[in-house]
Amino acid sequence: MPSHLSQPALAPGAHYLSGNEAAAEGALAAGCGFYAGYPITPSSEIMERLAARLPQHGGVFLQMEDEIASLSAVIGAAWAGKKALTATSGPGLSLMQECLGYAAFTETPCVLIDVQRAGPCTGQATKVGAGDIMAAKWGSHGDYQVVALSPWSAQEMFDLTVRAFNWAERLRLPAILLAEEAVGHLRERVDIPQSVDTYQRGYTPGAPPFGHPEPGGVPSMPRFGQGEALMITGSTHDERGFRRTEDPAAHAALVHRLNHKVLARAGELCQTEGHFLEDASLVVLAYGFTARAALKAVKLARRQGVKAGLLRLVTLWPFPEEAVAQALARGARLLVPEMNLGQVAGLARQVVGPGLVRPLSQVDGRHITPATILGALLEMAP
Amino acid sequence: MTRALDQYLRTEVKATPFCPGCGHGVLLGLILRAIEGAGLDPRQMLFVSGIGCAAWIPSPNFRADTLHTLHGRALAFATGAKAANPGLKVMVVSGDGDLSSIGGNHLIHAARRGLEMTVVCANNQIYGMTGGQAAPTTPLGAATATTPAGNPFRPFDLCRLVRAAGAAYVARGAVTRPYELMDYIAQGLQRPGFSFIEALSPCPTQAGRRQGLDSPAALYDDLSRRCLARRELAGDAELPPGAWELGSWCGDDN
Q1: What ipTM does this complex have?
Q2: Can you list the domains of chain B with their CATH numbers?
Q3: Distance CA B79, CA B70 (A)
Q4: pLDDT in tens for each of the 254 residues of chain B?
Q5: CB contact under 8 A, A76 and B64
Q6: Entry pTM
């Protein structure tokens, strides 16, 4: 794997940063050389920091006319050879959906940071929500895959932004950091490492840019100006890029390959974190900012003799089915607190069946407190 | 037999995608000749297009980097590519509906931003690929699939629009006057900044047949009659109804 160690732009050591600032630094550390975006609360600090920082590090910053143009420009820049990023929030994610599908279908590496706010629609722009989980995966039409990661700290806004870039580049797809307002605006200690592992694109001159001999193989990633005479199209195409808009086999093969490329790596992609799971009969399944409250609630429940544990999802897409199934294998029941009406709870039900999953939904623009989760755990306790 | 332009074409692409009488095939050749005439090699360039008949002029026909994007978004993709690598020579080729309706916002902002690229807008005044619906360039009163009683709305004057948005070079030509049009494209390629060439290109299949001009010859004759070169117009004389003013405008004229 063409991976190498890169030095972060920020001096190694402890820094006091907001999650959004940390994400911008993570992008720089990952080798991001291009940002295009459109201002939107509560993500704008990412854009503002990169407007200042990217040009200092040889990168290009563009403010575009809207979110559609932003992800369009990111895709153009990716094919011009840059690691490229945009950041937005729910309304912008809605506008970016056509480009997300284009990036998935043309295998364009790019990173999208969605700092989620309370939706639907304009909703409460400054308030927290986690209602974009399904939109991140299913918002564009057709069957495709993305990688989506869920940070629970300012530190992970840095770390997972780096990881999102690495997955995007390695698998040639759009990777999404599904952050939340509460993490984006959280200001806490971030330890900048001496170096980070970064992935450099693989390019084999003359190799087909949209095909690979191995079933789950990732094609060579050329860029404009190499004399490859690239044909990039959002229409169904063959391994060279010729449009194949009336060939049933070509369409089926492409859709299956692009999905298989990701799902075949689910084991490596699906990252989770367990806390007190060994003897847990009640497992809180949580992600993002809510997982912080869940961990506190689990510790408080244990003080009261309730055998609670936490399964934290770091990867949301592809959905970590194995880890969820394993948590239930010990006969536990699941509590799923989330700032939406049960989007991940529904996924958990698909894995373990409806009877064992209790959703704990809150959609009032406020984060879920440890006390709320503790209350639910005590109710469920035998 | 080797033809002069074959070196710039993917000759393995056998059939033209364009209908009999469509102006886009003529425009395809004019673009390549203009690039050559400007001292450039099309094979070293990046061609970005949107969705629609005109988007198929470069993709996949040109033996060059071609980026066939989403409907309306060609200029935003091109902006990202050009900003990321200013060394790329970028041309956008797309249609009037793509560039000025669904992509209208990107058009005026690309002109305002002024990044160097040349846009060739093939204007057939209709949505051809989808079956002949009205475009924002369809003439007032024209019958289309979605305006059977005649288009009730005025069309855009694309050149005035793009000039007002700050383009460095704007021109309007027609495939019925190929040498002029070729010269406009070559001029645009040699300007620093954003250049825009509107290329009038008739659509017999979807526009002409609903407008009493159902043979390509009739449609070409009609377009020829309507085209008036800027220098043929006396002073500030009003353009006759239905006429096109052909010519070029530099940023300084605005």
Answers
A1: 0.97
A2: 22-230+243-249 (3.40.50.970)
A3: 14
A4: 568 899 999 999 978 899 999 999 999 999 999 999 999 999 999 999 999 999 999 999 999 999 999 999 999 999 999 999 999 999 999 999 999 999 999 999 999 999 999 999 999 999 999 999 999 999 999 999 999 999 999 999 999 999 999 999 999 999 999 999 999 999 999 999 999 999 999 999 999 989 888 899 999 999 999 998 877 776 667 788 889 999 999 876 54
A5: no
A6: 0.97
B29 backbone dihedrals φ, ψ, rounded to 5°: -65, -40
Of B10, B69, B88, the CB nearest to A225: B88
Question: Cβ–Cβ of B68/A235 closer than 8 Å?
Answer: yes
Cβ-defined contact of A73 to B83 (cutoff 8 Å): yes
Q: Select from B40, B44, B85, B117 the residue whose CB has the most chain A CBs within 10 Å, as the one to mutate to test that interface.
A: B85
Q: Do B79 and A241 touch (CB under 8 A)?
A: no
Intrachain domains A3-199 and A270-380 with the same fold: yes
Position B15, amino acid: A
Domain range A3-199, CATH architecture: 3-Layer(aba) Sandwich (3.40)
Torsion, CA A244, CA A246, CA A251, CA A254, rounded to 10: 0
CATH fold label, A270-380: Rossmann fold (3.40.50)
Strand A13-18 versus strand B117-123 pairing type: unpaired
Residue of A67, A79, A230 to mutate, testing the B interface (most B Cβ within 10 Å of its Cβ): A79
- The residue extents of the domains of chain A are 3-199, 270-380
SS3 state at B175? coil
